[in-house]
Amino acid sequence: MAEGGQRADESVVMGEGNSLQNVFVYVKDGLAPRLYPVPTSPVVLDQQQCRYVPRVLGIQVGQQLTIRNSDALLHNVRSEGVVNEPFDVGTPIQGMEVQRTFATREVMVPFKCNVHAWMHAYVGVLEHPFFAVSDEGGRFSIGQLPPGTYTLEFWHERFGTATQQVTVAARETRDLTFSYKAS
User: Fold this and answer.
1) Does pLDDT of 161 surpass 70?
2) Second label for 135, Cα 20 to 30 Å away, from 3, 11, 26, 53?
3) Does residue 20 fall inside a structural domain?
4) Which letter does DSSP use for residue 14 in this model?
5) CA 168 – CA 179 distance, rounded (Å)
6) Cα 137 from chain centroid?
7) Residue 108: HSE in the Cβ half-sphere, 13 Å Cα cutoff
């Protein structure tokens, strides 16, 4: 909590050099059509100190999402998917976990807590593993991307979406710089 008991707005988290945290970056176009194995390990969305941690995350279609309440108080998990079926479940007990999976692609599925209006999270659901979320320095890494030309989409809860094309050769690492335009 910020001074005076006010919660800081976490919708825009800036780092050094105006870097932007919590940008969901994913391959939107350019992948060859194929099935990608679904990871067996779950992705965890935790309720910690009346916040969703992480605020932005990615998951593959069919991969388990574990939603955990690490707080010693009542929370509520409300998924507001438009393509995927929404759900609304209470998590009243510290340590309680709820498991869900998503049936189809959706960028992004908003989450909120009906008990604490400031608690928000966003989940990018994709059919492939080529996505990342920018860290506190605005950095991200999408590993194991096959050689090719791709359209990357950058999604941010406040600044919206933008795209950039990138060509990647075998065993090549590319550094990208991206800026949202001031509105």
Assistant:
1) yes
2) 3
3) yes
4) B
5) 20
6) 16
7) 26
Contact predicate 87/101, CB 8 Å: no
Q: State the pLDDT confidence band at 15, using cuts at 50, 70 and 90.
A: low
Q: In total, how many domains does the chain have?
A: 1
Both tokens of 157, joined, read 């809860």
Closest to 166 measured CA to CA, from 144, 140, 137, 145: 145
Which DSSP letter does residue 61 get?
T
Q: How far is it between the farthest Cα atoms of the chain?
A: 53
Q: Is residue 103 part of a domain?
A: yes
Q: Range of 62's domain?
A: 16-30+42-168
* CATH number of the domain that residue 57 is part of: 2.60.40.420
Question: Would you say 61 and 104 are in contact if contact means Cβ atoms under 8 Å apart?
Answer: yes
* Residues 6 or more apart whose Cβ sits within 8 Å of residue 57: 43, 45, 121, 122, 123, 124, 133
Distance CA 1, CA 10 (A): 11
Indicate whether 91 belongs to any domain.
Answer: yes
Residue with tokens 């990342």: 132
Q: Which of 100, 121, 1 is nearest to 42 (CA)?
A: 100
**10 conformational bin, left if phi > 0, alpha if psi -120 to 50, beta if neither:** alpha
pLDDT at 179: 79
In a domain, 179, yes or no: no
Residue 181, SS3 per DSSP = coil
Note the pLDDT of residue 3. Answer: 39
Identity (one letter) of the amino acid at 24? F
Mean pLDDT score of the chain, rounded to an integer?
Answer: 89
